[in-house]
Design a protein that fits this description.
It is a multi-pass membrane protein. This protein is α/β, with parallel strands linked by helices and about 475 residues long. Helix content is about 45%, strand content about 10%.
Length: about 475
């Protein structure tokens, strides 16, 4: 079937002053400290391209979670209470309204606390909590010491508020998080999920998207430039050689080339880049392929940056442009776009609108057009850690990005929208390499970030 197909993906930098008046720094060299000095019982890696994990451990998760037991409790508890007051079916249903949420919270709390690890292959060092963390108050030092691990959600809130510090590099300490943290559900997590995230998932309106995107991405180009570097790309780069440490800029250049190659971009092709960020892909496709690109973003700063970059590269507005608008208002072209790309914007569309979004993309493509989608999601065989980090990301890093789902959800809806999937690539290790370089840039710019945005924002973004 030749009808529209989809590809799914998930030079050394120098200090330079931008037109906006801030500097890009050269990514600092990686630490020479051996990351695998202590055997942990499983094979570890020593690739120059990535931050090699010293403790690749699996914790508790879906394999020990019993849906049968949970459903039984949801049914039996209100039924038992109704029987105690001589009630029938309607009484049971009425009581279920009040017992469902408490039962869910209690079950998830207990399950996340006592469930066994997925496997015991990786040995934890077994060091005391105080080996990794320094609590400022005597009360907290007494509460979290020795083997008394701190819930991760409790920790990161205390860390942001300056109540606890790492005893060493933040990334290195987080590599050993299983040795000092619990991935149990806390009251604060439930509160955020029920009063913050859940209403947004249900509603997910245009005004919500605009408020969240502009409140986030219009914080300041310097804020993002201080870790993204000169390419200003907020998605993963691509490693070309695992045995070499390529620069962040090389990783992102690799990524741009891979995207254009996978979609088979040709001179004169009409291309729509949904969620184009600072317009780097639009500029690359315009300059190197002569494509006619329309980039879409809700970020005002990103729009200005992207159009400025196109003009500086000698690309006329009649060829390529960045538009500040909702993806639902993206302009069509006669006959449809030859290529549509969407690199980590679809998560912001939300679960509620995901199928409609894909159908819109399908309808905007030429009959033989190609859609390239990169999306960050959760694994189906989840661990409690995944869910806790997912809530953290939604609260602090990518607000409204509730469509970070397992791969099966995405592929099913792509095919439901009419797409024929041509290929799927997992780019997790490439993202790890990119994040490692972002982190080193961020640490190098600490004084600048704290001076303009405060210590809390530096801490929120540094781990």
């Amino acid at each position: 079937m030749a009808k529209k197909s989809v590809n799914q993906e998930p030079a050394p930098s120098t200090t330079a002053v931008t037109a906006e008046g801030f500097e890009f720094v050269e990514t600092p060299a990686a630490s020479c400290v051996s990351q695998n000095a202590e055997p942990c019982g499983v094979r570890t890696t020593e690739y120059p391209a990535i931050k090699n994990a010293p403790l690749p451990a699996d914790a508790a998760g879906s394999d020990s979670f019993s849906n049968t037991l949970l459903i039984s409790l949801l049914v039996l508890v209100p039924a038992y209470l109704a029987r105690q007051v001589s009630g029938g079916l309607w009484t049971t249903l009425f009581l279920a309204i009040f017992t469902t949420i408490p039962i869910l919270m209690a079950y998830w709390t207990v399950a996340s606390t006592i469930s066994p690890r997925k496997n015991e292959k990786a040995r934890y060092p077994g060091r005391p909590v105080e080996h990794y963390l320094n609590f400022l108050s005597e009360h907290d030092r007494a509460k979290y010491h020795g083997k008394s691990k701190i819930p991760m959600e409790t920790f990161h809130e205390m860390y942001f508020d300056g109540q606890v510090d790492f005893k060493g590099d933040a990334l290195e300490m987080l590599e050993y998080r299983h040795d000092w943290a619990q991935f149990k559900f806390t009251w604060s997590l439930y509160k955020y999920f029920l009063t913050g995230m859940l209403p947004e998932v249900i509603m997910h309106t245009r005004s919500q998207d605009e408020e969240q995107v502009r409140g986030h991405y219009d914080r300041g180009d310097d804020f993002y430039g201080w870790f993204l570097g000169p390419r200003m790309i907020y998605t993963s780069g691509i490693i070309s050689n695992i045995n070499e440490e390529e620069t962040l800029e090389q990783l992102q250049d690799n990524k741009l080339a891979v995207v254009c190659e996978k979609i088979g971009l040709k001179p004169g092709d009409t291309m729509l880049d949904l969620g184009c960020g600072w317009g780097t892909l639009a500029k690359y496709a315009s300059v190197h392929y002569g494509a006619h690109v329309t980039g879409i973003t809700l970020g005002r700063n990103q729009t200005a940056w992207g159009n400025n970059g196109l003009r500086k590269a000698g690309i006329e507005e009649s060829q390529s442009r960045i538009l500040c608008m909702d993806y639902r208002d993206a302009p069509s072209v006669p006959g449809g776009y030859k290529k549509i790309t969407c690199l980590e914007m679809a998560e912001h569309v939300g679960v509620r609108h995901f199928s409609t979004f894909l159908r819109q993309v399908y309808d905007m493509l030429d009959d033989d057009g190609v859609f390239f989608l990169q999306i960050a999601g959760l694994r189906k065989s989840w661990q409690y850690e995944d869910l806790i980090w997912g809530l953290f990301m939604n609260k602090y890093i990518f607000p409204g990005a509730d469509a970070s789902t397992p791969l099966g959800f995405v592929t099913e809806r792509l095919e439901g929208a009419g797409f024929e999937i041509k290929g799927i690539d997992t780019v997790g290790v490439h993202y790890s390499a990119t994040l490692w370089r972002w982190y080193r840039n961020w640490i190098a710019n600490r004084e600048k970030v704290e001076a303009k945005y405060g210590k809390r924002w530096f801490r929120v973004s540094s781990p």
